[in-house]
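tool_call: predict_structure(chain=1)
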Amino acid sequence: MRALAPLAIVIVLFGCGSSRTSGVDGGNQSDAATADSGTVVGTDAGPVDPGAPSATVSFGPHPLGVGDERTVCVILDAGNPVARQVRAIRTHLPQGSHHMIVYRTDMPVRETPYPCFPFADGGEAVFIAETVEAELVYPEDAALEFSAHQHIRLEIHEINYTREPIDVRSSVTFEFHPPDAPPRAPVEFLFTGNMSLTLPPRRETTVTSFHGVRDGARIFALTSHTHSLGTYAAIHRARSETDFDTPPLHESTEWAEPPLNTFGPPLVLDPDEGLRLTCTYFNDRADTVSFGLDFEDEMCFLWAYYY
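tool_result:
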């Protein structure tokens, strides 16, 4: 899966990935190739609105051997000379990026890729990309706030399941409102799910969980996340884990590229409602599979964008 979206983390759980096989030296990085470094490019990268100011940060090319899996990070300066409000985010994940998480951070710039652990290396997650091309435009009265020279951490879960070595690349473009735009409501991000997964061998298993949302939250986008054993995922507005009376807000039968569902106008839940998450798997392996961070483990998560 590869991915999409912005915001302030409300619930912090572990995301995908671990440095199973790492070609990145976490101690001595002086011999890393310049081509491995993250870069910042100009405002001509084709933003959502071609006439709007934007900034793009990019990663790679970063070589990855056959069968290798690892999570690496870079920290880059977005290059905006003054504080700005972000109105849209677009990501590009070519081959080799299972997914990418984008963070705002005040950590120092670190352009050479280094091994990192999901949600444990500092910063505030603002977007998760799971598809080759992903784009999210915020509602007109909401925005993601950037300080001058905002530092951005890119966390890339790399995996090479091809028969040849590959170069991993990714990029994120931020489109800004005009400098004199009035203040907007800050965008927030909910990442939560079910970590009590036990999938017996040679059978189908369905798990369901219920997750609360802040009262009055205006939800404008939803997506889900499983690994390769996932055959179906759905998110419903509901009053409990056993409330099945509403149609799905989000459904996915493609574990690798789940859709990002957007809502206009934003969805506002009743005070006694939350989000019910359902994931179905078929474990065709000989062994039981449980929750974990590696690609061979499984997950059942939802991501909600709101303000």
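agent: DSSP finds no helices and 24 strands in the chain. Proceeding to next step.
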